Amino acid sequence: MSMSRRNFLEFSAAVISAPGAADPEATQPVVRDGPASPNFWPIPLQGNVSFEELAGAGISEAMAKALPRAPRGACISWGIPFQIDRPLLLKDHPVTEKLAGLKAGWLAFVHTTDMKPPVADERGLIRPMRGEGWLAEHVADYVVVYSDGGEVRIPIHRRHQIGMFRPRWGENCFQAVAHTKPFAVRPLHQQPSTLLDAGGNWGQAETRVRAADRGPWVNWLWAWKNPQPDKPIVALRFEPRSGVTIVSGVSAGHASQEPLRWETRRKAVLRLPEGLEFDYRLDALGRHKQIQLDMGQIISAEPRRIYPQDNWGDTYNNKLPEISPREILIEYAAHPDARFHLWDGTRIPVAELESERESGPMARVAP
Question: Relative to the CA of 255, which of 55, 104, 315, 329 has its CA 20 to 30 Å away?
Fold first, then answer.
């Protein structure tokens, strides 16, 4: 692609000033794809191995090479906070994590599996062919232990509740999502640094979206609904069944429905105060500086266009609308329990906006 001198200078300046260009999160194995929801809190795990020790713990060479990119520290995925310090390696023996009488309606697990090469028969055929992701293979059981001695056993299957750390294209999970939520990207003519943020890959800006489900190391986020939320949980027992499973973190919380499933897209208008100019640029994870969602995602933010509703029939053909200087049209998809997080610390529940039609500086746009 040829580039004029003027375009080159504009691109270079945009890269230097891009919101995510100097962001340490772009290079460090810390995942924070948005603000954390107050509905969830991380459960500290003792773990049975360090990330540094995993390389010599019988994992594949490919997984060992990818270890430096494994997320760790204080992470936020899909609005759910996780504290990833020492992971759990499930391979040969069960591992038990004791809890202090935890009560929660949902448990969220961030975990992944190692690669497992398909095995061919004497004729060189792979039967049944489950794909490289070994569809539906039973890899582990997670056992929830209650204070009264009762237990709930949860079977964990590949490409359902968990996937491989490096999935093949098209082999995602049915019940789990990658640890970074999908996000929008701006076209190059609006934000030249998009090319840098997208890793320089051709076609990233043209699609206007990144699924964020590929990378050197992918954890899978899966949420389990506790059938007895009022009963204290005193332990989690992890029992390996097949292959290698790594549990990086667990979070607990409450949600009105499946916390990883968003509603269909909605629209709202954000009114800016006098003197505040909206920054339309996105960082490397598709985040705006002045408005974000925890359990959801901003699809687009554009200046509101004002059309002559009252006298449209009297205007001339192809008349352009006026552009509002202080109103931003926000398109989003979110969980019913999600909250907007604004530049000044204000939090606006999506449910409140839906029911009241207006909340603070935001107003719902009817479908």
Answer: 329
Digit-coded pLDDT (tens) for 269-311: 999 999 999 999 999 899 999 999 999 999 999 999 998 888 8
Q: Are 186 and 205 in contact (CB under 8 A)?
A: yes
Residue by residue, DSSP assigns 56-110 as: TTT--HHHHHHGGGS--EEEEETTEEEEESS-EEESSS-EEEEEEEE--SEEEEE
Below-50 pLDDT ranges, the chain:
1-27
Strands of the 362-365 sheet, one edge to the other: 296-306, 322-334, 266-271, 362-365, 358-359
Pairwise CA distance, residues 173 & 161, whole Å: 7
User: What structural domains does the chain harbor?
Assistant: 35-179+219-253 (2.60.120), 266-365 (no CATH)
Q: Is 53 helix (H, G, I), strand (E, B) or coil?
A: helix
What six digits make up the tokens of 85? 């310090």
> In sequence order, which residues have a C-beta less than 8 Å from that of residue 217 and are 6 or more positions away?
29, 66, 67, 69, 70, 71, 112, 165, 166
